[in-house]
Design a protein that fits this description.
It is a single chain. The chain has 269 residues and is an alpha/beta fold. The chain is 28% helix and 24% strand. It has one domain: Nucleoside phosphorylase domain (Rossmann fold, 3-Layer(aba) Sandwich). It has a 5-stranded mixed barrel with strand order 5-8-7-6-9. Helix 4 crosses helix 7. 46% of the residues are buried.
């Protein structure tokens, strides 16, 4: 696959600002931006300064890159993402993620705030994404050219990375559930009827991100893992009535568990 000029341009802009080798890329979901405060010798670059990166703002997303050392590994942290619901473009993260191919194609760890459909994964807990369901319809590869767009999605969530995260959770004594994540477009939260449908179809977690990013990342050969920070129960389940402030605040409280997990996971890469 020929190098995409947009990816090369974005990567060159980062290198010009001082970004070097990357051992792991990490996208931080709603309320998790404080994880980047742990990075040593941090270089911070606003998305607005980078070609092809999304602008705009969502509460709980700082919209900047942070590059430096975390637990002995060089990391590139995305403090916030752009969502489909902001402008109707499922490929809005195409350049930010695709440019990783020009930086050595490091493993990509996606995090998000999610609603839980299982009483065994209550608010404040962490869950490993094993697979996903996309019933929204939009696919970020619509309009892509060539046979590369026909991306196989078996083991889209890399088995080896998932294994390392499970081992790290045991080492750090962090309870880690796992399950299937269903993508809803947002920005409105799911109805109780939609949550009942999701359960019937085999979903364990619901949220408004991640799935388009996984598809984009796999299109460009990146190895992907996904973690959900459970911020609420799904609408109508165990009193669940989700709202954005709850999502943001509970995710921030759960950041400590994610910190411990990363502390055990990153050195094993």
């Amino acid at each position: 696959m020929a190098a995409d000029p947009a990816f090369e341009e974005a990567a060159s802009a980062l290198v010009a600002r001082g970004v070097g080798p990357v051992d792991c890329a990490l996208v931080l979901g709603t309320g998790l931006g404080s994880i980047a405060d742990d990075v040593q010798d941090a270089l911070r670059i606003p998305y607005a300064d980078l070609p092809g990166f999304p602008h705009g703002e969502v509460s709980g997303h700082a919209r900047q890159l942070c590059y430096g050392t975390l637990h002995g590994r060089k990391v590139l942290i995305y403090q916030g993402r752009a969502h489909y619901y902001e402008g109707g473009d499922p490929a809005v993260m195409r350049v930010p993620l695709g440019m990783l191919t020009a930086l050595g194609a490091p493993p990509l760890l996606l995090t998000n705030a999610a609603g839980s459909l299982s009483a065994e994964m209550p608010p404040g807990s962490l869950a490993l994404i094993t697979d996903h369901i996309n019933l929204n319809g939009p696919n970020p590869l619509v309009g892509d050219k060539g046979d590369g767009r026909f991306v196989p999605m078996v083991d889209a969530y890399d088995p080896r990375l998932r294994g390392l995260l499970k081992q790290a959770a045991g080492k750090a004594d962090v309870p880690l559930g796992e399950g299937v994540y269903m993508w809803f477009s947002g920005p409105s939260f799911e109805t109780p009827a939609e949550i009942r449908m999701a359960k019937l179809l085999g979903a364990d977690l619901v949220g408004m991100s991640t799935v388009p990013e996984v598809i984009l990342a796999r299109r460009h050969g990146l190895r992907v893992a996904g973690l959900s920070i459970v911020t609420n129960m799904g609408a109508g389940l165990h009193g669940g009535a989700p709202h954005h402030a709850e999502t943001r605040d509970v995710a921030a409280l759960a950041a400590g568990a994610l910190r411990r997990l990363l502390g055990a996971f990153l050195p094993e890469l």
